[in-house]
Design goal:
- This protein is α/β, with parallel strands linked by helices.
- The protein has a single domain, classed as NAD(P)-binding Rossmann-like Domain (Rossmann fold).
- Strands 3-2-1-4-5-6-7 form a seven-stranded parallel beta sheet, sandwiched between helices.
- The N and C termini lie far apart (67 Å).
């Protein structure tokens, strides 16, 4: 395949880091973005251009696109990978945390697409890869804000695919399942300050922590994930949607075939919602 110009967000660890390095190994020029540019020291390669990119910082977004335009004059593929998972009971997550979750997972990648589109239009084979989540299809207790943000991003990606097609830009939505990366550890950190000692859900704190770290023991590694995704990106006919990672297909199929009442009963049991002792005094 002809070498391309890539911009990958969220490259400090996990999927983003693996994608950047493996794409660079194949000869592509990769602009690898991360909030902390020093975290990119672990993926040194002659084809990797490290860039400071906090997707929530509009000035940095514009600066990175201007840098690519000045150096390469086009962008072949934008991979919207940056994101995180806000965990905890919906009743006890602050509005600020909800807003930040949606800003990072929904508003910022949309803004990046808006700014990058003129540069993508200069490519004869432009594509956008939007990293969604199987959790955005199959919602689970104690991850409602994260699930909602990914569901919203899926909708944007679907409309984006239709609206950008006439401009010669293909949009692919990826539905990752569980991937053994730092996502679970970061999600666990997000719980700090959410669950108070007198929480209505204090009796199931272990179940909430389990949901936050559920991906840590996954057999799908970031390298395996990156290999599968790159294979799809290199396909002469890019798929519109693809599920990659442990449980991705199962979660999406289950949402369609398992009756709502049964699904919610199973999830309530798994996450111990029937063990909550409501304190009315």
């Amino acid at each position: 395949m002809t070498n391309k110009i890539f911009l990958v967000t969220g490259c400090s660890s996990g999927i983003g880091r693996s994608l950047a390095f493996k794409l660079a190994q194949q000869g592509h020029r990769v602009y690898a973005g991360a909030r902390n540019i020093y975290s990119l020291q672990k993926i040194v390669h002659e084809n990797i251009v490290p860039v400071s990119l906090d997707v929530n910082d509009k000035q940095q977004v514009v600066g990175v696109i201007e840098k690519i335009a000045g150096k390469d004059g086009k962008l072949d593929c934008l991979i919207n990978n940056a994101g995180y998972g806000e965990m905890g009971p919906l009743l006890e997550i602050s509005s600020d945390k909800v807003e930040t979750q949606f800003k990072t997972n929904v508003f910022s990648p949309l803004y990046l697409v808006q700014i990058a589109t003129p540069l993508l239009m200069k490519s004869s084979q432009a594509s956008i890869v939007n990293m969604g989540s199987a959790a955005g299809v199959f919602s689970t207790p104690f991850s409602g804000v994260y699930c909602a943000s990914k569901a919203a991003f899926h909708s944007l990606s679907e409309v984006m695919r239709m609206e950008l097609a006439p401009l010669g830009i293909h949009v692919m939505t990826v539905y990752p399942g569980a991937v053994s990366s730092s996502f679970g550890e970061n999600a666990s950190k997000q719980l700090m300050g959410v669950l108070a000692p007198d929480s209505l859900y204090a009796d199931v704190a272990d179940a909430i922590e389990k949901r936050a770290t559920i991906s840590k023991q996954s057999p799908t590694t970031p390298d395996i994930f990156a290999d599968e995704l790159i294979e799809q990106i290199e396909n002469s006919k890019l798929p519109k949607e693809i599920g990659i990672g442990y449980g991705s297909r199962f979660m999406r199929v289950s949402k369609r075939i398992i009756p709502t009442a049964v699904r919610e009963w199973l999830l309530s049991k798994k996450f111990q919602l029937n063990h909550i002792n409501v304190r009315t005094s």
